[in-house]
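Below is how a single chain appears once it has passed through the pipeline. First comes the sequence as given, then the structure the pipeline wrote out for it. We keep one example in the README because the format questions we get most often are answered faster by looking than by reading.
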Amino acid sequence: MFHKIFVLTILIVLNYACKTNKSKELTKKNNGINQKDCLVTITNQTDDFLKNIDELQNYKWDSVTKKATINLANDEILTITRGGCIHFLVAAEFQLPKPISYKNDSIYIFDRVLWITELVDDYKYTILKDAIKSGAYETVTNKHITTLVFTNKALKEKFYAITINAKENTFSISQFLE
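Resulting structure:
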């Protein structure tokens, strides 16, 4: 079981890293993405999902990377990704101005994750809240990255994960929609 979770965690991290690097490379080359290289239609990926969320109205949308950036209180930065080329992903990443770790800051991490997943309709907020409350997740730690992989069937099917990167002072919640 641990081996499966570890492999899943690695795949999620690598997929996110590959998308980020590929997006940066494509942006540098031609300031866009060639739709014919994508498995997911990217032309209709917009910021519409954020427009009616009052708490997030100060966002800046990047139509190339499909990311919204929001400056929050206490010098935190929230980046919400919704889109993709190979897989359709929804992810919310919090960048903090101070060190963070799962061991010391799990309550804060869970509070922030639940806050954003309640606001963004793509997430299964109630199921996620229950899974966090009941501890229905497994923890995988590798050096400075801790990933929480959910064992609830509905969350598992969408590859829900919370990833805490102590080196980068970030934590995120992600899921695949397609």
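The chain has a mean pLDDT of 80.

See the next section for the split statistics.
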